[in-house]
Fold these 2 entries.
Entry 1:
Amino acid sequence: MKLNTARICALLLISIMMMSCRGQKSEKPPVHPQQNMDFQDRFNAQEANPFFADGRSMRTPVEGTVARGQLRANTVLYEGVDENGDYINEIPFDLTESFLYRGKDKFEVYCQMCHGGTGDGQGIIMTGGYGYVPAPSFHREASYNMPDGEIYSAIANGIRNMPAYASQIKVEDRWAIVAYVRALQRSQNVPEEEMQQYDVDLAELQQEDEERREREDELAEERAAASGEEEVSAERGEKLITANACNSCHSVDGSRMVGPTFAGLYGSERTFEDGSTIEADEDYIRESIVEPDAKIVESYDNAMASYSYLSDGEIQSIIEYLKTLSDN
Ligand code: HEC
Ligand code: HEC
């Protein structure tokens, strides 16, 4: 048979067609003519490796060494702490308008769904009743007093129940978010005289605020009226502790978590940050739930957000449940 150009071309074409699509399902692996380095001996993550004495294929860096490009000696920038390990109170970048807008962008992607658009802790995830640990408002004394470095650290390392966002948010963006959180805090606390210089209708804003407050009061009254018929029981209280994620900060077995244990709490003497004491009666527990900033238990952080959305019947049920955890 004579091999002319046309025949060679036809053969090539047919073989290429056969390789690329065979027209029916097959259990066999696809034809893989160009091997590159696609199939070579290697260890998968977590796989045992008999070569090393400890049998691990995943190696830790040799002690005292740093991989190229991974030196993080600048603790101010990377950790938000100074040479003594104290949180710094300054953002290590120029606070330009574009830097702030960058922070706004990132805040809206990574923080807003929980902390809310104004930083009031009323993000969409928090208001849906899904039983998340509430995100605290940034407009509290405790958050105002938080050094910049600590907010940075909350993003980089997480804080208590909040996970770390280091794997998703780059160092510079974390600082941009810190700057934006500061801007949010300022935005909700502009003194009235200073507001005069802005082009806003103050009277209208105040009117809106008043209406909002009235609506909230009405809702609270409605809830109070409805709670007369609500079930109050320790069983319901126990379920509410789980449904509202109280148990992510409070144990019932005496162990210390983010917050004090519930075991033995009711009726015991409580000591507060300022040295004062009180007996944990119903009023105290109610206040602790609705207005946790009022008294801070000694040796604990002011970390609990208000659960003012719970109804009277719900709070009473929680109190009944706490009573069962105490011999007092
Ligand atoms: C999935 C919800 C969620 C997201 C997303 C989230 N947070 Fe939080 N954040 C929380 C919760 C819940 C707490 C309270 C944790 C605790 O006290 O155990 C918290 C606490 C904090 C605190 C401490 C506040 C205080 O007063 O103690 C800071 C600061 C903070 N978050 C910043 C951020 C920033 C900045 C982002 C975005 C990068 C972010 N958070 C994203 C849920 C979230
Ligand atoms: C993010 C963590 C966190 C969550 C969630 C949380 N708490 Fe707390 N709670 C604390 C911390 C921290 C304290 C101690 C500081 C203080 O007094 O505010 C505290 C204090 C209290 C106290 C006073 C305790 C004492 O020893 O005197 C009560 C009662 C309480 N919480 C009830 C609740 C209930 C009920 C829930 C759920 C509806 C809840 N907490 C959810 C962190 C949390």
Note: Residues 99 and 176 are 6 Å apart (CA to CA).
Entry 2:
Amino acid sequence: MEKVRIDPDIRRAATLPARVYRDPEAFALQRERLFPRAWHLVGDAALLREPGDRMPVTLLPGALDEPLLLARGKDGRVRLLSNVCTHRGNVLVTEPGRGQDIRCRYHGRRFGLDGKFLSMPEFAEAVGFPSRSDDLPEVPLGEWGRFLLGSLAPEVAAEKLLEPIRARAGFVPLEKLAFDPKGARDYEVAANWALYLDNYLEGFHIPYVHASLNEALDYAAYATELSEWGVVQVGVAAAGEPAFDLPAGHPDVGKRIGAYYFWLFPTTMFNVYPWGISVNVVQPLAHDRTRVSFLPYVLDPLKRGVGAGSGLDRVEREDEQVVESVQRGVRSRLYDRGRYSPTRETGVHHFHRLLVRGMGMEG
Ligand code: FES
Ligand SMILES: [Fe+2]
């Protein structure tokens, strides 16, 4: 695929070429080069309460189908392991459950909860067996409290990725959040995942697309901050709208913050509101199809119906409409690239630079 140059100077840069959004070949490059080296949300440690608890997980169903397994060991530690038997490749765990060890249903090989090979029938005569290659490979795991992220071959340490969220949202008592399964929703969007993110990464469209959200936020004070591997958007609450009670020493003390929108490259978003957190997970399905999961974690149910964190379903539908419209637009023969607003689209510009680099298309 042809190289792409996104000028580091936003004032001069042109946006991502339309072909990156519409071309299955670009999606194939992302699957092959970008997703395996990035971090993705894999689960909630609170679902693995006791040693022996395990659950099968996939980093990105359809786009990064690596069978993995989260397991809490006897030492209390949660590990992310390969879910593929080291004998002849059977998938080991297919349902969440609990047990002393992990046993393959094909020929009875057993592994510890730490992935170490334990036993195997009919192998007494095998030479040089067992060896370390008979253990289940362990996959790097990152943790923001209970929220677990995994990466097959990380390009960056999880700690680096999580630094901005620890600094800004470290005060949120994550262990007290109650997951609300009834409020959880999956949205199917007929658009490229990167278009969904382009839209997520700017507040520029809020006054045009989201009438109600626009009333809850102070648009003039809306701020976007970049970190090496992410973006945080800080939504200042409009007068009379709910805001965080920030602890002493917090970088935003003195401001009335109604929402923090954290994006962790490339697929994870934590939208932090006074009522709790809406975790959004972007799952790229095809070059023109994306699933987005909304997972609500509630701290204060009374605040859920007000402010920037309310009416999320309506806001999502408004976003979907515009993103799907852009997907149709990028198929035009008369459109290729645009320009960035230097004041309002720094997050989008940053994402595009990371994306092009991650695909190995940097020109
Ligand atoms: S594939 Fe697991 S024991 Fe044979
Ligand atoms: Fe939006």
Note: Residues 38 and 203 are 25 Å apart (CA to CA).
